[in-house]
Amino acid sequence: MSRALGTAPVALMRGHGDVVVAPSLKEALFRAVYTEVNVRLEAEALRLAPLGQVTFLNDEEAAKATSTNAGVLVRAWDCGRRKH
Prior knowledge:
Layout: H1 2-5, E1 10-13, E2 17-20, H2 25-48, H3 59-83
Antiparallel strand pairs: 1-2
Helix pairs in contact: 2-3
């Protein structure tokens, strides 16, 4: 598993979901929840779009998204706690 992850925060496991790592429980939970959401959205986009027409984030956009996610991490954690 560690080889599959390498330096990535998430690895998808065919037929088994995913595994995430993070420096905190809050961030790990955020990644676990939103990885599943994003995988479903990506699968739907790939299903609906003409072949090769889905544009993924480039490295700069991905870094900005990661920074934005770090800023809302506590809010997402608090919302989740209130629901349960």
